[in-house]
Each structure stands twice: as structure tokens, then as C-alpha cells.
Design brief:
Its main location: nucleus. The protein has 887 residues and is an all-alpha fold. The chain is built from 43 helices and no strands.
Length: 887
């Protein structure tokens, strides 16, 4: 089919593919029969020599692949010198020779052979590399070599360098010829540079790095410039630039070391200038160019390497650092233009893909400001202030937004030494209030969001400044101007306002009324998002927390009365929404009415006997909560359950915020709520969270009542062991056991009853549950029990574990022979360790009667009872062995 002159091209292609598949899948038959082997080799070589001009490219490519694959199966036993032989036979057609030699390396990854044979073959191929290099050098240095042949030689180099374990040192002499051959071909040049950068040895080959970087500066940069002038959006030039940036980034460590220690600063400066030109290319990304983000990681890596070097080598050439600082500064200046959004009308015309690309572009280049700041901090910030001021004066909204964005990117790295520049920036920001009237300008809206994020990032420095009060008084009016339903990023304004209000500083006294009025008006706006309204209420709460409780409660009464829950004629959905929102109002107020510890506020007033506001508010809320939990809301069971869940969340916030001395007073209500909510399907999760907080907060002040309540819970959990919420119950028990062991154990009877029930729950769960999380939590509870028993010498609990020993041992030892996640195996191991160590004789006798109990791995576990870590490792091995060979 292949050699017949009368065969069509399709027939020949089919024949070539079939021959390739036969060699690949039936290689043993092809090589074991000497006659067939010789016949196949002769046919392939003759087809490539005498029939070259009659074959199509597709047939030739498949025949060279077949010969390359056949050669691999013959090396080394059946064909010891394939490179020399093929070179002699195919010397007259150098292009075919290059393709065959390339395919010898290229087909290696498709071989079907044992690993040991594959490794032997790989070693033999490495020995051929010198001969391959010589052949390639002759071809590339030939004066009359065609461009197609040179391209084939370059592909040959690529394939051999991709061969696993191939070293770069041997190939260095021929790389200059390779690069020279492809310098005008963007795709081939990019491929070679990518290949070099990805090689593991590249960063260790100083000579090659220096040569490649010089080649980039002289030749590649010129080629890139030519291609960019022709078509800045070309995919080929983008690939070349990407490969160039990758090589440059991988070379940074060597270039910096050469510059610092050997004084060779010219090369790294030239490379940085090449990267700078790419970064500063004119045009709007991604509409007019797609490459200016590619060098970003080079400059970040260069900055990191230099800062590290400066710490170890403080005497670095100042002129060298100055040149780099200029490059970074120039890039910062250009980035203000590159990162600026187009006008909103133009932005609206962009498709979603272009918008996403531009947003990602800003993130990619966000380090440009910190790069410049690292070398010239004051100059960088002063420059940004100058540009920001100019943009504000010139009403260039988007350029001003970019300056604010760059400020935000560097804000987290600033310190007290930057205060002069920060104060100047705040002075400019004070002029950027949100317009109170007129049409909404989306560009102004976006700039406002960026400015608010900047103020949020600078808050730690502003609030620690000597003039913090004056600065906050300047900023509050600006922030409040953005607390408006017409501002799309109002949540940024509320988050920033909360950040400055939560500390309850003196400025909150000065601006408290204005904050309350603005935020309350926003809170009353029903068109705003619920979460934003509650965030505004939280800011009101911070202001109220510094007022006298009686005055605060009057204001809160007005807030609550405005909800109109009992308005006649409203439907069930509205009733549910209003009740839910009212509960969330309570929750928000509970979270912010607690005074910051150590803060001086106006609530330290006339009477020190007056109850704190949060206590009064909680007392007001309890009747509402009780009515909702009893079903008096008039809602169906499902909605009532959802409201109980919201109540549990709100009460949890209150319990965490209440002063300790008031906890006993409210404990009966919390206990009553938990006794019902913990066993209502809709509210289990929230109730479990409340129960955890209650035990943590009330344990030291309530005592026996809490211990009795916990004991009752665990007994009820045991009755509800089939509940789908058993994991929530177990998590609650686990936290109490882990964090409140000593407090619970102070009360003998309830603790013993609770822990006995907990042991039975855990034992049954480990034995029969398919819930991975529940089994893990049960194992953690029992492991924690055993650890506390050993560390505290709790003889009574030890006796209980002895009573339950046979059941627990059979359960744990049986479960550990099933497939489990690693953390569960470790917890079960800790339980076994307790029994192996504390009851060695009894445990050994019992275990040996169980399946696998006499195995060598179990014997090894007994030998490690003096070493918990080794015991755990032996248990893990036992688990793996049992899973592989299940009973």
C-alpha cells in the first residue's frame, strides 16, 4: 500500500498508520524475528530515501515516526549504533535525517515496555546525545542548508532536550546555532526558550543563563519590537514574550548574584529595560494589546531577590539600585494610565470577557506600586499624591481612581515613617465626598468604592496617630456621604464606618449624632439590602454604646416600634419577614452594645448602679423570643422552626456579650430555649452553637445547674441516637469534654451520668454508623476521655471505661479493620492505646480472641505501649492491612 505507485494518498496514509501501530503494539514479534526485523528496517529506510519525493508530508511524518519507534525497540541489543548508521544512510536527505533523529527521542514517551527496560534504554539514549549534537551542528552550520531543514534540526533539539534526565551542559555549544537558526521565527524561538526555562538544570547553568540573557537583549528584543510594530495583538508574539519573560524570571537569581558580587550590573539592567518596554507598551488592555502583564512576575521576583540580597549584602552599588529604582518608578507612572478604567460609557460597550480580563490585569499588576515603594518609599507615595491631586483638580475621575487603587495596594506595607505622605493623601480624599444630588456618575461611584477600601486599609495607622481624633473627624463626613442607597458600593462605606466606629474613640462622641442620623435614615430605607440595613444599624449601635442606658433604650424602642409587626391585614410571608428582621435587629444590637474593655465612654455616668444597655435590651427581647418559640406568632410549624433558629443565633450573641455577673439571671431562659430547640429539626444546628457558647460562658458562674442541664441533654441525645442530627449533638459533647472537663467533673453525679451516656452513644455510633463525620467525632470524644483519664488520674472514669471495656474494645478493634479517614484511625488508635497501656493483660487476652487479634501487626502494637507515636503508626499499618484483606 505504501510503496505501490498506483496507491492513492489516502491508501498510503492508512498504510503508514497501520505500520506504526503494528510496530508499537507487536514490537516483540517485529524484533524477535531476525528476518522480519531486517526486512522492516530496510523497507523503512528505503521508503525514506528512494521514495521521498513521491510521498506526501503526512506519509513521510508517519514513516519517520515508525523508524524512530522501531529504533527504540532495537536499542541496545539489536542495533548498537543507530545514530551513526542513520546518518550515513540518510545524509543525502538531511531534512529526513533530522526528522528521524527527532522521532527517536519523541517516541520515547509512547513506548510500551517494562520500567527496567525503559530505564536501560534511556541511559543508552543519553549516550547518543554527543553524536546527535555533532550531526545537528553540521546541519545548522551548513551554508546552503534550507530553512525547512533548519526547522527540522531545531525540532530535533527540542525533542532530545525533553528526554527525561537530559543534561543541558552537553547541548550548550549547539544552542547558539539553534537560536541563530530560529531568531526570525517567533513560534520556534518561543518553543526553544520555553524548553530551556522549564529544564531543571537551567537555573544552575550560569554560563548558559548569561548567554541566553545576552541573546535576549540583542536579538529577541529586536524581534519583539518588530513584531509589536506589525501586530501588537498577535498570538505568536505573545507566546514569544511569555517565553522571554519566563527565561528572564528564572535567570534573576544568577543575574542579581553576578551584579552584586561580580559587579556585572549591565546585563540585569538591560534585561529589566527589555521587560520595562514590554510592560509600558501603549494601548488599552485587552482591546489594543495583550502582553503588558507578562513581565509582572519578573519585576516582583527581582524585587524579592534584591531585598533579600540587600539584607545579606548591605554594601550594594547605590548607582545600580538607583537605576532599578528609576525603572520601577517609570513603570509606576505608566501603570496609572494602563490600569485606569475607560469612561463608563465605553466600559459598558465592552463584552464580559474583556471586562474580566481587565479586572484580572489590574490584579496581576497590583504589585507595581509596592515594587517601586520598596526602593524609594517616600518618592513613590509623593508621586502618587501628586498624580492623585492632579487627577482630582483636573476632574479625571478614572485616573484618580487608579491612584487610589495603587495606594490601596501598598497600604498594608506602610508604617509610621510614611505618615507625612498618608496625611497628604487623606487631605486629598477629604475632597472626594459623594455628590448628594444630580445624576449618578458610575465612574464617581467606582472611585468612591476604591477610596473607601483605601481608608479601611489605612485605619490601623490613622487610629494610632497622635492626631487620630482630628483625622477621624475629617474622614467621617466623607465616609458618611457614601452611606446612601444611590451608592452601589454602600457596603464598602458601612464596613469602613464600622472599622472606625468599633473602637469607640473620642471622635465617635463628636460625630456620633451625625453617624446615628445618617445610618438610621439608611436603615429605614426598605429598598436597600437587608444585610446593608443591618450593617448601618450596627454603626448606630456603636454610637448608642457610649450613651447612657436609659437614653439608649428610648432610641432602641423607637427603632423596634418602626417594624410594625402587628400591623393588621398583612400576609404570613410578611409577618415571617418582619419577625425574622426584628430578631436580626436584636442580634446586631447585642453584638455592638457591649463597651470595649478599658474604653472611656459617656455610659460611665451619673449612676453606676444602672444596668448596662445590653442587659436591659436582652430583658426586653425575652418576651418576644418566648412568644416566637411557643408558636404565638401565628405562623406554621416550618416558619416557626426557622424563627427559633434565628432566636438561637441572637441569644448566642447576647450570651457572649453579657457581663458575667448577669449570666445567672438569664440562664433559666437560655436553658428553657435549648431544651426545646436542640430537638427541633429546623433549629438543631443553631441551638448546638448556642449550647456550646452557653457552656463556655456560663460554666464558671452557673455551676451545678449547667452540669445538670448538660447531663439531661446527653441522656436525650442517647434516646435520639438515630437522629440525622447526631453529628451536631456529638460535636457539642466533644467541645464540652475537650474544653470544660474539669468544670463538669466538679459535679460528681451529673458528670458521671452524662459521660456514661456519651460513652454509649459513641460506642454505638462507631459500631453501626455510616456517617463518616459522626464516627470521627465519636472516636475523638472517646480519645479525649482516655487522654484526660490518664493525665488527671481520674480513677472513677477509669473504672467506667473498665466496665465498658469489652464492648468498647470489640467496637473499636472491629471498626479499625474497615476503611476510615486518617484522623479517625488516629483517634481510635488513642483509645486502643489507653486500654493496651492501662489494662494490658486483660486487653491482650480479649484482643487475641478477636479476628486478626493474633496477627503480627497486633503483636507489634503491644510492643509499643511505651511509645504513643509508634503505637499510632502500628495501628495505621494494621488498618491499611485489614482494608486490603477484609474479613
Amino acid at each position: 500500500m505504501i510503496s505501490q505507485p498506483t496507491s492513492s494518498s489516502n491508501v498510503r496514509i492508512f498504510g503508514a498508520h497501520s505500520l506504526y501501530d503494528v510496530i508499537r503494539k507487536r514490537s516483540d514479534e517485529c524484533t524477535s524475528n531476525q528476518t522480519l526485523q531486517l526486512s522492516l528496517k530496510t523497507f523503512l529506510i528505503e521508503s525514506l530515501t528512494s521514495g521521498t519525493y513521491s510521498q506526501t508530508t503526512a506519509v513521510l511524518n508517519k514513516l519517520t515516526s515508525s523508524l524512530g519507534l522501531f529504533t527504540l525497540y532495537c536499542v541496545p541489543d539489536l542495533w548498537t549504533t543507530p545514530v551513526e548508521d542513520l546518518t550515513g544512510l540518510l545524509a543525502g536527505t538531511p531534512e529526513i535525517l533530522m526528522k528521524v533523529l527527532s522521532d527517536i527521542a519523541g517516541e520515547f514517551s509512547f513506548l510500551l515496555m517494562p520500567l527496567s527496560q525503559r530505564n536501560t534504554l534511556k541511559s543508552e539514549l543519553h549516550k547518543f546525545s554527543k553524536s546527535i549534537i555533532q550531526v545537528i551542528a553540521v546541519v545548522l552550520r551548513g551554508g546552503d542548508t534550507s530553512s525547512i531543514t533548519k526547522q527540522a534540526a531545531v525540532e530535533c533539539v527540542e525533542q532530545w532536550l525533553r528526554l527525561p534526565g537530559m543534561t543541558l551542559d552537553e547541548w550548550t555549544p549547539v544552542l547558539s546555532d539553534v537560536l541563530g537558526a530560529v531568531v526570525e521565527d517567533c513560534t520556534a524561538l518561543a518553543s526553544i526558550l520555553d524548553l530551556l526555562a522549564e529544564n531543571d538544570e537551567f537555573q544552575r547553568n550560569t554560563t548558559l543563563i548569561m548567554y541566553i540573557c545576552q541573546f535576549i537583549c540583542i536579538h529577541v528584543s529586536k524581534k519583539i519590537e518588530e513584531e509589536l510594530c506589525a501586530d501588537p495583538t498577535s498570538e505568536e508574539v505573545a507566546a514569544l514574550i511569555s517565553a522571554t519573560c519566563l527565561v528572564a524570571t528564572k535567570s534573576i537569581s544568577t543575574l542579581v548574584e553576578s551584579a552584586v558580587q561580580a559587579g556585572n550590573t549591565e546585563l540585569i539592567i538591560r534585561i529589566a529595560q527589555v521587560m520595562q518596554v514590554i510592560s509600558n507598551i501603549q494601548g488599552q488592555y485587552p482591546q489594543q494589546e495583550l502582553i503588558s502583564d507578562l513581565p509582572s512576575w519578573f519585576f516582583v521576583s527581582l524585587r524579592v531577590e534584591l531585598i533579600s540580597m540587600i539584607k545579606s549584602e548591605p554594601k550594594i552599588n547605590e548607582q545600580f539600585l538607583g537605576q532599578l529604582a528609576q525603572i520601577y518608578a517609570h513603570m509606576l507612572g505608566v501603570s496609572i494610565l494602563k490600569l485606569a478604567y475607560p469612561e463608563f460609557n465605553t466600559w459598558q460597550m465592552w463584552n464580559l470577557e474583556d471586562r474580566d480580563q481587565f479586572e484580572a490585569y489590574r490584579l496581576t499588576r497590583s504589585e507595581v506600586c509596592y515594587d517601586s515603594y520598596s526602593f524609594a518609599a517616600t518618592d513613590t507615595l509623593s508621586f502618587l499624591n501628586e498624580q492623585l491631586g492632579g487627577a482630582v483638580n483636573g476632574e479625571d475621575i478614572n485616573r484618580g481612581e487608579t491612584c487610589l487603587y495603587l495606594w490601596q495596594c501598598v497600604a498594608d506595607y506602610l508604617s509610621e515613617s510614611d505618615y507625612p505622605c498618608i496625611l497628604k493623601c487623606l487631605e486629598i480624599c477629604a475632597r472626594l465626598s459623594f455628590p448628594s444630588s444630580g445624576p449618578i456618575d458610575q465612574d464617581v461611584d467606582r472611585r468612591g468604592g476604591t477610596m473607601l477600601r483605601l481608608l479601611y486599609s489605612l485605619s490601623h495607622l490613622i487610629q494610632s496617630h497622635d492626631q487620630a481624633n482630628e483625622l477621624e473627624c475629617v474622614l467621617f463626613p466623607v465616609i458618611l456621604s457614601y452611606v446612601s442607597p444611590s451608592f452601589s458600593s454602600v457596603r464598602e462605606a458601612l464596613s469602613t464606618l464600622e472599622k472606625y466606629s468599633v473602637e469607640r474613640t473620642e471622635s465617635l462622641v463628636t460625630f456620633g449624632d451625625q453617624i446615628s442620623e445618617t445610618c438610621y435614615n439608611f436603615f429605614k430605607c426598605h429598598s436597600a439590602k437587608e444585610s446593608d440595613r443591618l450593617a448601618a444599624l450596627k454603626c448606630v449601635g456603636y454610637v448608642l454604646s457610649i450613651k447612657p442606658p436609659s437614653e439608649t433604650m428610648t432610641i432602641i424602642g423607637q427603632i423596634l416600634s418602626g417594624q410594625n409587626i402587628n400591623e393588621p391585614g398583612i400576609d404570613a410571608a410578611t409577618i415571617y419577614f418582619r419577625y425574622s428582621f426584628q430578631i436580626k435587629i436584636f442580634s446586631v444590637l447585642f453584638s455592638c452594645l457591649e463597651n470595649k474593655k478599658g474604653s472611656e465612654t459617656r455610659s460611665t455616668i451619673a449612676s453606676t448602679n444602672e444596668e448596662p444597655t445590653i442587659v436591659k435590651l436582652f430583658r426586653e427581647a425575652i418576651p418576644v423570643f418566648e412568644a416566637l418559640c411557643s408558636g404565638d406568632s401565628g405562623l406554621d410549624q416550618n416558619n416557626t422552626g426557622n424563627l427559633i433558629q434565628e432566636v438561637c443565633k441572637a441569644v448566642r450573641v447576647a450570651i457572649i456579650s453579657l457581663p458575667d455577673q448577669y449570666l445567672p439571671h438569664f440562664f433559666p431562659f437560655v436553658a428553657s430555649l435549648l431544651n426545646s430547640a436542640l430537638f427541633a429539626p429546623a433549629s438543631v444546628k443553631a441551638a448546638a452553637g448556642l449550647a456550646k457558647a452557653t457552656v463556655l460562658q456560663c460554666g464558671s458562674v452557673v455551676g451545678i445547674e449547667l452540669a445538670n442541664m448538660f447531663s439531661q441533654w446527653v441522656q436525650l441525645f442517647e434516646r435520639h441516637i438515630e437522629s440525622p442530627h447526631i453529628e451536631e449533638y456529638l460535636q457539642l459533647v466533644y467541645q464540652v469534654v475537650k474544653k470544660n472537663w474539669k468544670m463538669i467533673r466538679r459535679f460528681h453525679d451529673p458528670s458521671i451520668v452524662a459521660f456514661r451516656s456519651a460513652i454509649r452513644i459513641c460506642s454505638q455510633t462507631i459500631s453501626s454508623s455510616d456517617d463518616t463525620a459522626a464516627v470521627r467525632c465519636s472516636a475523638q470524644i472517646l480519645a479525649t476521655f482516655s487522654a484526660f483519664i490518664m493525665s488527671n488520674g481520674d480513677s472513677e472514669m477509669k473504672a467506667i471505661f473498665a466496665e465498658e471495656g469489652q464492648i468498647l474494645l470489640r467496637t473499636v478493634f472491629g471498626r479499625i479493620q474497615r476503611e476510615l479517614i486518617r484522623s479517625t484511625v488516629e483517634s481510635l488508635s488513642d483509645i486502643l492505646y489507653f486500654y493496651f497501656k492501662e489494662f494490658t493483660t486483660e486487653t491482650k487476652a480479649f484482643i487475641m480472641a478477636e479476628p486478626y487479634g493474633e496477627s503480627a501487626l497486633v503483636t507489634a502494637m503491644f510492643r509499643e505501649i511505651g511509645n504513643p507515636r509508634n503505637f499510632r503508626q502500628q495501628t495505621i499499618r494494621f488498618n491499611l492491612a485489614a482494608v486490603r484483606s477484609p474479613i
